Amino acid sequence: MPVITLKVDRFNRLAGTSLDPEELADKLFWLGLDIEEVGPDYVRVEYTPNRPDLGSPAGVARAFKGLYGLEVGCPEYRVEPARHEVVVDPRVGGVRPYIVAAVVRGVEMDEDTLVEIINLQEDLHHGIGRDRRLVSIGIHNYRVVEFPVRYTVVGGDFRFLPLDGEREMSIEEILREHETGVKYAHLVRGFREYPLLMDSGGHVLSFPPIINAEYTRVTPETTDLFIDITGLDIERCMQALNILVTTLAEYGGSVEAVRMRYPDREVVAPRLEPEVYRWPLGEFVDYVGRVIGLELKAEEVVEALRRCRMDAEVEGGEIVIKVPPYRIDIMHQVDFAEEVAVGMGFWRLTPDMPKTYSVGRPLGRSRRISAVVELMIGLGYTEVMNYILTNPEEQFVKMGMDVGRMVEVEAPKTMTHRALRVWLLPQLLANLAASQREAYPQRIFEVGEVFPDGSIEERIHLAAATAHSRAGYSEIRGVLDYVCSQLGLGSVEVHPAEHPSFIRGRVGKVSIDGRDAGLIGEVSPEVLSNFGLTMPVAAFEIDITEYVKGGAKG
User: Fold this and answer.
1) Domain that holds residue 527
2) For 12-129, where are the E strands, in sequence order?
3) Residue 124: which region, alpha, beta or left (left: phi > 0; alpha: psi -120 to 50)?
4) CATH of the domain at 157
5) 365 CB contacts (<8 Å, ≥6 apart)?
6) What's residue 552's pLDDT?
7) Which of 335, 363, 375, 539 reaches 20 to 30 Å from 56, CA-CA?
8) How many structural domains are present in the chain?
9) Domain assignment present for 354
10) Domain contains 465
11) Distance (Å, whole) CA 264 – CA 488
12) Of the candidates 216, 189, 194, 191, which has an alpha carbon nearest to the alpha carbon of residue 205?
């Protein structure tokens, strides 16, 4: 969980308070922050990853002022019209397709502010950005940038001076020798061309998602900033940009839009208008009251939401709520119920003992899944748990397949989580890709729900993958046979088959007691390359729904 340090004197200036460390810690607790340490002049707090807007002292002060009535309602952020543009080369579509950007002028910068901005940047990298894979952020000295900026691709022999570098280095040298380049090289492994941000004067701004150039270094004297955010998911890029620029606005900055000129469209960012939600007033108040266990009046609900830095008002029998652009965690009506509880003060809520008494026990389904998990762990495999929501690109395109039917989310918050998965193996390959800095061999598995062929019927699959220099069919077949034998699934047969995700001649269709159950084989080099993997991988995936339901032998 991310942790930030709040210098008490600095926080008092940001929040307009005069608290000592103990008083501050007591009040921060009710904001939903865990107190890690209280020092003589600082408080260290842990915040949950779903609230990246609390990743800086300015963000915490903004929320603090609302809860304690110092400044309530939705903050207003003015965005000046775009004067600059970023021209997007169509070739970046195959490497890192999306970029958004903004200019922020007049930031009240000093050493503390710079450190806080950099720490927020890194927390966004790890959270929203999934360690820079989905989103990476560049912060530059606006004053040295010559517009328009070009987002393009270059070869591995292209040279520039990286941040903190002592000499110009080629892209390939950075990935082999520079500390940051080595750490994140897996994100661009297998690329023939690499993404680069360059201004119209030929100066390099950054090599995303790896490192900025020394040319645009930001110092405590830098007050005007140019921000670029590149990634694989434009919605996540927008979210990260909104959080960063609204935080910089809290430090006195003035936000200016930038126009991104893609080959087929234009995008202007950032978009800082609040998101508007409407519900019938009585229905909403009753729902919130049931969730938090209080009988509430509409006025109390409105006031509580305003203390959580939202705008709320009653209009013609409806409650209208405006959510600030940095609150990316708000997705459902229950989230507003939680906000009301926070805004009213959790200290006002009295816990009750349950009115009914019962003794629980694990479901048969849970016991049987646990048996599978324990068996796989005993074989030296590590369990992973991935999201059920995924996307067609990962499930089909990266696996070398034509896009098939999926159950899709009607209004997804992010393009990477917009459909129910149809099988587990693609996510296991993504897990292996994210773990390439760890020692080999790597052996992982997952037992989880899938929805094959766009069906709404839930099936339970077991998938396992082994990755190392000698990974092959014989090893993974031995695991499959042992698992099926120990669980009493039935007689296992593997019939020759063809599948675009596996090497021809090294893939088979698994049948158990004559019933089609799954696939086994060695993953094809093309698919490994799509995930940025360099080690061979052998894997299987089988349907164990009947066993989990209690219908199989054993």
Assistant:
1) 364-549
2) 34-38, 42-46, 79-88, 98-105
3) alpha
4) 3.50.40.10
5) 548, 549, 550
6) 55
7) 335
8) 4
9) no
10) yes
11) 56
12) 216
- How confident is the model over 70-98, as pLDDT tens digits? 999 999 999 999 999 999 999 999 899 99
d(CA 32, CA 423): 37
Rounded Cα gap, residues 203 and 221, in angstroms:
21
* DSSP assigned state of 164: T
Domain at 8, CATH number:
3.30.56.10
Structural domain includes residue 74: no
Joined together, the tokens standing for residue 487 give 């669980």
Is there a domain that residue 73 lies in?
no
Domain boundary residue, one of 218, 249, 269:
269
pLDDT at position 554, please?
A: 46
Same domain as 246, residue 128: yes
Q: Which of 44, 67, 90 is the last residue of a domain?
A: 67
Mean pLDDT by 10 residues, the chain (554 residues): 94 96 96 95 95 97 97 97 98 95 98 97 94 96 98 97 94 94 90 96 97 98 98 95 98 98 96 96 95 92 97 95 97 94 88 80 89 96 96 94 92 84 97 91 97 92 97 96 93 94 96 93 95 94 93 54
Start-to-end CA distance of the chain, whole Å, equals: 41
What are 490's two structure tokens? 């039935």
Residue 41 and residue 27 share a domain: yes
Q: Among 443, 440, 446, which Cα is nearest to 426's?
A: 446
Claim to verify: residue 318 and residue 187 sit in the same structural domain:
no
How buried is residue 159: exposed, middle or buried, by Cβ count under 10 Å (0-12/13-18/19+)? middle
Say yes or no: 519 and 460 in one domain: yes
Chain-centroid distance of CA 361 in Å reads: 34
| Cβ atoms of residues 77 and 30 within 8 Å | no
DSSP letters for 197-236: EE-TTS-EEEETTTEEBGGG---TT---EEEEEEES-HHH
Residue 464 β-bridge partners: 445, 540
